[in-house]
Structure formats: C-alpha cells, structure tokens
C-alpha cells in the first residue's frame, strides 16, 4: 500500500481534554512525525479543530482510535496525500 | 509520446470507499509517485474530490480503470502536464 | 531570431480528442520541453484550454499546425517570452 | 510525550506591565527559544495579544504560570504544533 | 550613464504583425537579453501589450525605433530600472 | 533577560525633523542594526510612522529617549520579538 | 550617522524630461546603486512616480538636488531604511 504522508482532518472535540494534550497525544502515535492543530471554531460544548498530521506512513485507524480515546471524533477528512513524496494540489495552492 | 507528469482530476466518489483507501489505491498504481486528494464538496450520496497525481510517466487508462474499480468516476480533467519537466501556467499561478 | 522560450495560448478544442492526448501530442513536438494544459471553460461543443509551452526555441508554426491537426485552434496568444532567459512581467506578477 | 514546538496564544493583558517586559519575561522561560507578541486589539483596560512561542519542548504550564504572574491570562489557544518538526496546516497556509 | 536594466512598456500594436514576431523582433535587438509580451486588451484594430524588457544596458531609442518599424507605438512607459542591479519597489511589490 | 530582536512601533512625529534624519538617528543607536520607517498617515501637524527596528539586543528605553529627543513619541508598540531567533506569527503571516 | 540604504519617494515630474532620462540621471548619482521608477499616476501636466533608490550610503541632499535639476520635486518620502542591513516592515510586508 502506498504510504500515507499527510492527513488533514476536521475534528470535533469537547472542551476537555484541552487542545494541547489532545495534540501531543496524537503526536505521540508512533506513525506521526508532526502534528498541528488549529482551532477554527468554538461552540458551547465543542471545539472544531483542523488537524494536520505528517509522517512516513500514517496509520488512519491508529489515528481514529486515539482521537476517540480522547473523546473526540473525526468530522471529516479534508485531504489525504500518499506516495513516495507529498504533492500539493496546484489549483488550490496546497 | 511525451510522458505525462501531472494530472489534476475532478472525481465523483460515493461515500464508500472512504477518501483514504481511495487515495492510497491510486498511490499504489505503479505509474504514480504521489497522490493527493482534497475533498471539495460533500453531497448526500457523493463526494467531489480534487485529485492530483504526479509521476514520471502517468498512465491515464490505468488511472481511469482504478478509479472505476473504486466505484468512482472522473468528472473532468482539469489540468495535464507533460514533458521532460513540469511547467506551471504563469497566468494562473499553477 | 531571438528564440521563443514560452508561449501561453488560449485554445478552443472540440471534446474529442481529449485534453490528455491533446497535451501529449503538443509535448511530442521536438521544440517543446514541457506542455501544460488547464481547462478554463467547458461549453457544449468546445473546451477552452490555457496551454503553456516552454522550450529552448519554440516553433510557433509547428505548434499551430499540430493544434490544427488535433481539430483545435489558437483563439489567442496571451503571452510570448523570448531571449536567452525568460523574464516575468513585474507588474502582473508573471 | 511528543514535544510541543509551537504555541499560538490569544492573551488578555492589562496595560501594565507593558508588552515589551511581558514578551521578554516569556522569552526568559527556559523552554522558550523565541517569543513574538503582536497587539491585535486595544480596549480601555486590556490589550489582546497574539503570542507565538517556539522551542524544542515548550512547557504549557510554565507558560501559563508566567502569564498569570504577569497579571495576564490565556484567553484561548489558537494553534499547537508538536513532533520532531513543525508542520503548517496546508489548507490554512500556516 | 547608469545602464537601464528593465523597461516595462505599454504598447499599442495593430493586429499585424502578430505578437510572436513582434516580441522576437524586440528580443533580436542587441541590447535585449529577454523580452516578454503579455496581451492585456484586444480592441477592434489594436492590441494593448505589456512589454517587459531586460538587459545589461537597454537602449530606449533602439527599442522605440524597432517598435515603430513594427507599426506599433509606445503608449506609456510604466517602469524603468537602472543601475548595477535591479531593485523592486517595496511598496508595490515589484 | 531574553534579548529583544525586533520592535515595531507606531510613532507620532511633528513634520520637523524630517523622516530621514529621524530614521538615521534611530539607526545610530548602538543597539540598532537596522531601522526602517514607513509613513502611514500625514496630518496637518504630525506624521504617523511605522518604525521597525532590528538588532541583537534592542534597548527600549534608549529607543524611547531618542524618539523623545527627536520631539516625537511612541503612540503604540505593535510587535515585540525576543529570543535567540525571531519567529513570525504564523496566523498573521508576520 | 547610520547609512541610508533605501529611499522610497513620491515624485512629481513634468512630462519633460521623460521617465527614462529622469531615472538614469538618478542612477548616475555616485551614492545610488540601483534606481527604479514606476509611473503611478498621469495628469495633464505632471506624472507621479514612485522612485525606489538603494545604495550603501544614500545622500538625500544629492538626491533632492538632482531631482530639482530635473524640474521635478519630492512630494513625499514614503519609506527610509538605514543601518548595516535593510529590514522590511513585517506588518506591511515590505
């Protein structure tokens, strides 16, 4: 299988745990080299995060499980990149 | 024939298979070095993906067959680049 | 004659041949190092393509003939660059 | 734990201490390599600062305590990056 | 005299000669290293071109004469750069 | 104390001294490596300048005194960066 | 005195001399390494130019005199940079 090198996820997260432990837990996954979470919306009970994960061979199921263990859920998968290098979409600029 | 080095496709995909297995299946094609899929629209029964493929010599027919095997279809081809290097369109910026 | 290093063309093309064989045929011309075609408009019977060609010494007549052989026509020439290097227009950004 | 490499914080700060001692105090924390504070809003009694901190292993609690010692408070955490390198969110451009 | 290294010209050109021979003729001038012409407006009898010329020591009179020999005329000079290197206008971005 | 590496100031300055002697006087301060002043607003009796100062260890008090000696005043401090390197705010782009 | 490394000037110039001799005369000043003039407005009797000058140690008085000798005048000074290197204003992007 072509290894997944980037995942961009829309995640719904309750206010607890906070965005910092949430992100570092994802960063602790063995398949994740770098994780960045940006808060894009704050509602009464949930936060919407854009989560970008990069690695040499990301494991979606391990990511999904970790997110569920953190009481959060993947609302949508916005971008997937795989292969021996990461290519941006030239018409979208990323 | 001048080898195709980049294809940007608009793809209609049912919700199943998901965007991750869809993208990695394309990335598994021998001619594909890197594949990136970005979800640009979500409707009730289908998702519209922008799919960017790069390689040294992309095989459109192999790509099209794989997409059909994944129950999806190429809605349109948005950009094709071929030759010994990849040139961007200077007026569009990509 | 100063060699032409870049041509940006607006091309009208019937739906057949498709944009992929159209682009690779242009890329096959001896004078063309790289060819990129982007679909910018789709009408009932024709597609409008922006075609960017780069090479060390592009031959406009060979390009025009090939485009005609492919049942298409150059609607307009949007940019021409020539000389020992390619300079962008600083006020337009390309 | 995956080390935190970047924190972007929204901070509410009374007018005293000023933004310069505030920023240098944060920069003095052992875990902080670089700190940048930008004033984004000025109200009668408080200033809203965007604070970006980078380091090899940022300690959120040390940062939070220092901010409280400076009579200010973290209003929200806007972005967290962790891992062996820092990845930007490709869809947001940062 | 400080050598002129870049000229950006607004040129009015009848439809004949075409933009390709027009640009290569300018590129043939001994003082011109690179010439790029972009079509910015098309009227019934004339085209408006933005022409960017770069060289080590551009000769405005030779350029003007060549443009007149090509039945065209300089409508305005939009930018001139001279000196031992080319500096962009930092407030305009070019 | 973490050394200040960049200060961005909003300065109100009477028309005399002019922006050139004003900037070079700031540039003469021992702690200042580079100073750039941009005029952002001109009123009847004052000019508003955006002043960017960079150095290895900027001394705010020396800067403030010099500005006062030049009959001007710091209206606000817009950005402060300190530490062993200068980090931009990724969400603001600077 | 900290040497001036960049000056951005708004200049009002009668139509004669033209922008090319005007710019090259400025480029001829011993303190000027590079001069770029961009026409930003054309009125009946004057042109407004944005003039960017760079050098190791620009001499404002020599620049002003030369501009007056060319029948033009400095309408305003938009930016001044001085010091051992040139720093851009991070909030304005230049």
Structure description:
The structure is a homoheptamer of 94-residue chains. The mean pLDDT of chain A is 94. Chain A has 94 residues and is α+β, with helices and mostly antiparallel strands. Chain A has a 4-stranded antiparallel β-sheet with strand order 2-3-1-4. The first copy, chain A, starts with a strand and ends in an 11-residue tail after the last strand. Chain A has helices spanning 19-28, 60-69; strands at residues 4-14, 34-42, 46-54, 73-83. Chain A has one domain: MTH889-like domain (Alpha-Beta Plaits), CATH 3.30.70. Chains F and G meet through helix 1, strand 2 and strand 3 of F and strand 1 and strand 4 of G.
A few lines on this structure:
Chains A, B, C, D, E, F, G: It comes from Natronobacterium texcoconense. Chain A has 94 residues and is α+β, with helices and mostly antiparallel strands.
**Biggest chain pair interface:** A-B, 26 and 29 residues
CATH superfamily annotation of chain A:
MTH889-like domain
Shape of chain A: globular
- The whole-number mean of residue pLDDT values of chain A reads 94
Q: What fraction of residues of chain A sit in β-strands?
A: 35-45%
Distance between the termini of chain A: 23 Å
One letter per element, helices H and strands E, the order of chain A comes to: EHEEHE
In the CATH hierarchy, the third-tier topology of chain A is known as Alpha-Beta Plaits
Please summarize the sheet with the most strands of chain A: 4 strands, antiparallel
Q: What is the multimeric organization of the chains shown? A: homoheptamer
Number of helices of chain A: 2
| Strand order, largest beta sheet of chain A | 2-3-1-4
**Percent of residues in helices of chain A:** 10-25%
SSE class of chain A:
alpha+beta
CATH class category of chain A: Alpha Beta
Count of strand segments of chain A = 4
Total domain count of chain A: 1
Alpha-carbon Rg of chain A, integer: 13 Å
